[in-house]
Amino acid sequence: MLDKNRLFPAESASRAVAAKLYETVRDLPIISPHGHTDPQWFADNQPFPNPTALFIQPDHYIFRMLYSQGISLESLGIPQVDGKQSADPREVWRLFARNYFLFRGTPTRLWIDFAFAEQFGLKERLSAENADEYYDAIDKKLRTPEFLPRALYERFNLEVIATTDAAVDSLEHHRKIKASGWKGRVLPTFRPDAVVDAEYLGFQDNLKKLGEVSGEDISSWKGYLSALRKRRAFFKENGATATDHGHLTAMTADLSLNEATALYERIYTGKTNPGDVELFQAQMLTEMAGMSVEDGLTMQLHPGAIRNHNPHVYEKFGRDKGADIPSPTEYVRSLRPLLSKYGNEPGFTFILFTLDESTFSRELAPLAGHYPCLRLGPPWWFHDSPEGMTRFREQATETAGFYNTVGFNDDTRAFLSIPARHDVARRIDCAFLGKLVAEHRLDESEAFELAQDLTVNLVRKAYKL
Amino acid sequence: MLDKNRLFPAESASRAVAAKLYETVRDLPIISPHGHTDPQWFADNQPFPNPTALFIQPDHYIFRMLYSQGISLESLGIPQVDGKQSADPREVWRLFARNYFLFRGTPTRLWIDFAFAEQFGLKERLSAENADEYYDAIDKKLRTPEFLPRALYERFNLEVIATTDAAVDSLEHHRKIKASGWKGRVLPTFRPDAVVDAEYLGFQDNLKKLGEVSGEDISSWKGYLSALRKRRAFFKENGATATDHGHLTAMTADLSLNEATALYERIYTGKTNPGDVELFQAQMLTEMAGMSVEDGLTMQLHPGAIRNHNPHVYEKFGRDKGADIPSPTEYVRSLRPLLSKYGNEPGFTFILFTLDESTFSRELAPLAGHYPCLRLGPPWWFHDSPEGMTRFREQATETAGFYNTVGFNDDTRAFLSIPARHDVARRIDCAFLGKLVAEHRLDESEAFELAQDLTVNLVRKAYKL
Amino acid sequence: MLDKNRLFPAESASRAVAAKLYETVRDLPIISPHGHTDPQWFADNQPFPNPTALFIQPDHYIFRMLYSQGISLESLGIPQVDGKQSADPREVWRLFARNYFLFRGTPTRLWIDFAFAEQFGLKERLSAENADEYYDAIDKKLRTPEFLPRALYERFNLEVIATTDAAVDSLEHHRKIKASGWKGRVLPTFRPDAVVDAEYLGFQDNLKKLGEVSGEDISSWKGYLSALRKRRAFFKENGATATDHGHLTAMTADLSLNEATALYERIYTGKTNPGDVELFQAQMLTEMAGMSVEDGLTMQLHPGAIRNHNPHVYEKFGRDKGADIPSPTEYVRSLRPLLSKYGNEPGFTFILFTLDESTFSRELAPLAGHYPCLRLGPPWWFHDSPEGMTRFREQATETAGFYNTVGFNDDTRAFLSIPARHDVARRIDCAFLGKLVAEHRLDESEAFELAQDLTVNLVRKAYKL
């Protein structure tokens, strides 16, 4: 099912180089600096419940495709806002198996086939016929010690994995992991969206909680900033090396102290003017950049997703149900206030992501090829795919070079897919380098160096790991 | 002139698979669910007048390219608004032949070479030298029974062909075809632009006519909607399975009954406020979607063309003279009102097209990979080409999969080019699949299934044919 | 270091055709219709000072990449606004050599390797180890007669080179060259940005100077236009065949005489309303097009760069320091006023460039494939690269054809890179044609013709050289 040359160019000269390069990176440790696994898994080290709960229900790539073809989320057992969830796991699995052909040509198919073959030894393509056999085989393995979270971490050859955590999080699971003496490195990432976006669900409560956990008076701009500074320090003490910011746009602002103070007052009291919510987020990106200059945490920006586009799905099933849709994203004017203030600061690392591929050659590579602080994150979400990665390299490299990029992010809550995702990225990078060598645009010796850099060196440097 | 491996990848492993796949789809019937052929051809079954009238004068791809290189539309015999048209057909043909080199690298060249070789047995490239020989050979064949419209329909192995017809059309030609007993399936498509776009030429007269043919009082919002409902039913009785909507943008709206009633009053009386014309079109897309939910007609949206960009050409020669130019098109916010209302309706099929390729990976594939009603139309107009089709598959498949697409549309009024256009589409799909197989991203057995699906199964399902 | 098949496709059938095509264009003369070399070089024919001053300090591609990786512009000896510049040339060279790996995968690397190998006979990749050896070898050659500017012009097989010159320029160097009897053709290009953009540094002084050199009263709209007409005539007398316009957007306008007169009054007196500066530039594009219709100068438009994005760099180092960043650029609505007025004029040639690649297939190719005046300039600046050129051909050819393009521009102030840049363009065009032939989309005999056209014929015609 998994050909050893998969994802390499069909053309033989390029393929030969790609395969040689891949041999040298295949077994390197996995460094996962950005993702959404649950730290409690590693803290408690309990078995995963069943194949459906592991593979299907947490993976929006899977259920969004099934939903697009008329399969209801109820029938897939996706948990509902009111707590209902009735589907039988085995029935859901059969439904998935019958429709597995829908994933032809998608990265989901690559990831899942890899997990089936490499982790469960299942080598025949999943189908209606073998659905039960698959279910039973996986279910059985999940009850073995080899499939407990910590064992999988080790088996996957993970060197470090970062989670994503709310600014007010107690980091109890991270602390429990550390206290346990287990040698796995599971690091938190500081994600303050819920206390920065005034339209976030429960924003006022989140602010209150921020005040409580930090011991600061968050009714004033100064106290609010102090609270965030303290939380960042707390995250850093617990191993964090980075922050992450999910915004609708890349807009930044650089307000005067008086303006910012007045704006926060309106946000805090909920008496906002039109545009205030977006302006506050814009100002906060610049504030966060300033704090990164101070404390050295690497800053990540993920803009451009319109969240919860489908109100029917949102009302019944809540957030993160495959109904987030990208939109055109502007960077050059939007980032100027932040970059004018901090763009030339030594030691500041600011990693940009995009869902709008038209910006790679037009905006992102030119920006990253100039500003010392900027680095380009890998292709994200819908573009974390063979074609997406290839376009990224083709469109960004000539202007930004390889050395303004930061290696791969798996960005996933689907733990079992992590080795597969990194394997795809390594193969596509080797394929790209192989083609450059075959076209005499790069020496083979340079390609070997680059393969190492793209797999482990650049990510370690950018995320200070 | 036509190599049997044309359009397949040069690389031998991919090519071998592509060629094998193509063998299995080459002779499948042609299903043409969207195009602009004239139903009168099939109703009356009269011979086409001459080579120039058949190949050059109805084909905006051809005369726009010649015009761009300084060849006047007058000298090509393009009919003028005032009825003038003086060029001698043979002289026009010679002018075309002398400039045939201009089409190198364009799809027009592929289509025309195919028609020359496959339908007229002309195997030497058209040039100044053989222009007369070509003209005479084609002219002679056009007078034979084998080149009458119905004979060509059969010879082309057409299974069904849809035309595009105004909402007020009598469908007399379609009825005549049916009454004739001829077994060809020539179906109308409901296209209401002329009674929905208040800036359309003769809009007020079109509304009046709509009232007459439907027997409804179109002075009220309610009567106007009833008239449209009746016309849709009339089209459906006469074989229509789809509607088509050509709009400047993809904007949709979901107004309250009071708002919509008042808006229609302003539109009907011509006393519009700024933005009303666009808002009315936006509201009408949502109304049309609602009627599709009721009557089951598949809905198609073709947004993004700025019509009649060149006033000089428009004044002298009128519409559709190669001076329509695409513009950036937004889908995600624009379609939200319609999708929020009807996006999750079972049985509703809504096919999106674009002239803005940057939306494939950013907006269209993510939308189609979530909403049950959405499907992606094939690359349209300027992008109906080998590179355009390849980009579409590369940019849409990883997120939308193959099964949220709907096969090929020829979208043409150039009847002779239909087999060529479908042949190009089949070759490029096989080329794409061949590359996936050669790169071990798809099994060969799956590629054979997909080749059938992309050629006949998906189009039959999406258009209910 | 330079493989003879570099940049050709790895696939052997395509490569074989590409290599044969390249043989026929490799030694054709270089025609450079657009660039930024200094005419004084050819007028005075003095040696270039040293390797660093020749290769590094004038080349923003080089120092922007080094800066993006944290290397200060001071340490590279980039001249500062206050006149300071202290870095030792040899130390700068060593710094460059140590960091030469950063350019892997970029066109800069291709250009520089070519210059090292072909012009200086240096065949080992530049590195920290051989930095001094390189420096000494280049430095020594620069003192020989073979490396004086005129000798290099001849050695590079230049047929003609155009410079870019302010509207008020005396063209003294061009006149000196002509008077010298030397047979090299160094032609000026009329670039009026500094007297058209009211936000240009020293705009009021520039206007005053324009009045002086033309002998016109530029306090009135009429006098201002007369002054520009006279300057164009002066440029034309001194060999110019083209004008060039660098604007933030592609916006054009077609104001009435009264509106334009009033607008100029506001611009001239500095009492502008919001939007006036942009509107004036928009109107001036249409005026310049009208003058091109009169005097036959080919018009070039380069829109879309946000200049001096980094205020820190701008304040200390001034313009053109690698901190210009592209932004989304709209053409279809923007150019309509100009094209409505002059788009169908016989003999008018208007060449469009872009930094926004999403416009190639969406806007530029459809426009150029219709309007007789329009031609597409080659991929520009960040897109003057193997992948950029390939995308241009893939995205523009199917709609605009090859014959609405104008060959290659090197657009450089890095004189030594000119042969390398033209060599890359020739190789990529041959690679593109080779692939079309191998995929049976073009006959080999046509590809040989096209290779000549793309290399010399189209540029001669478009620029009237």
UniProtKB/TrEMBL annotation, chains A, B, C:
A Pfam family recorded for this sequence: UxaC
Catalytic reactions of this protein: D-glucuronate = D-fructuronate; aldehydo-D-galacturonate = keto-D-tagaturonate
Entry superkingdom: Bacteria
Keyword Isomerase: yes
Enzyme class, UniProt record, top EC level: isomerase
Enzyme Commission number: 5.3.1.12
Xref: InterPro entries: Metal_Hydrolase (IPR032466), Uronate_isomerase (IPR003766)
NCBIfam families xrefs: PRK02925.1 (NF002794)
Family: Belongs to the metallo-dependent hydrolases superfamily. Uronate isomerase family.
Name of this chain's protein: Uronate isomerase
Source lineage: Bacteria, Pseudomonadati, Acidobacteriota, Terriglobia, Terriglobales
Name of the encoding gene: uxaC
